[in-house]
Amino acid sequence: MTRKNRTIRTPDSLLEEKLIDQDDLTGVREVAEHYAVSITPAMQQRIVDLDDPVGRQFIPSEAELITTPEERADPIGDDPYTPVKGITHRYPDRLLIKPMHLCPVYCRFCFRREVVGPGEGMLSADEMEAALDYVRSHTEIWEVIFTGGDPLLISPARLRPILAALDAVDHVRTIRFHTRVPVVDPGRITDELVETLTMDTPVWIVVHTNHQQEIGEDARVALRRLSDGGIPLLSQTVLLKGVNDNAEALEGLFRTLVANRVKPYYLHHGDLAQGTSHFRTSIETGQELMRSLRGDVSGTCQPLYVLDIPGGHGKVPIGPTYLRTDGEAHQVSDPWGEQHAYPPRTSDDT
Ligand code: SF4
What we know:
single chain, alpha/beta, binds iron/sulfur cluster
């Protein structure tokens, strides 16, 4: 499909660009009153069919109006861990800074969908200074993680003083950005941005991407530019029904990432965000998919399958497990499902 070189932000533009039908317009308008819409030119170009793995992630649907009882406005429980505006401090040695609530695209399954979108924009200069002060005064913080919204929507000129302030904090030894920009808006990965991200404190980037169909030539160039700039690259993927809930899609994505210098880091089980039940799989499905990758696909392509426990109780790996222990005896499953005994501990083991 040929589409215009502009970001789509309204139901009427979706109709104009033939991404929805006239019959969908009323429902999609209702969805858009609750949840922001944005599809960048790069992602419009990657949509081949409206119901394909890219279209399903970004084109609003009336299914988002259905909320199930277990769904929550704050599915991973950020709010109770917010000591100052813009910070989530859940784990002792690391915290999140959410400098802005805008994203280049709005994913229809987003776990922060109640708070991202136009409106709040960016932390003010005073709010950012208060967030930096919090980091300075908490010497246990080893890692600062920028998330959002999408922190790489911030211009290099505005990022530079924020990063310089963190670079000057002795106890902060690493900085991480979680972003969709390199894939969905790759033109933003400029030499100036790479230079801004290059300083004494190492900056890691975790790229959010869910299907290899998202990763066009311009995204590959952006990833190469970051990698050539010395920035280590990881990825995070959300397991999504109808997008990547099959072994072929996951294998294709993880191989593509590694081939583009990105180590698959997390496969997230879908969070209980409101209006997203049509995207969620069962945990058993996720475990089965992970099991199908193990053994047949290089270890470099294996992410950790994780769940953010609702209520803010943290993120944990959720299998599959290969070891069963009965008393002191272990049974280990190999990648193809065969069981093997592993000897119990002897007095010589340490
Ligand atoms: S880019 Fe991230 S924060 Fe923004 S809508 Fe997508 S999942 Fe949510």
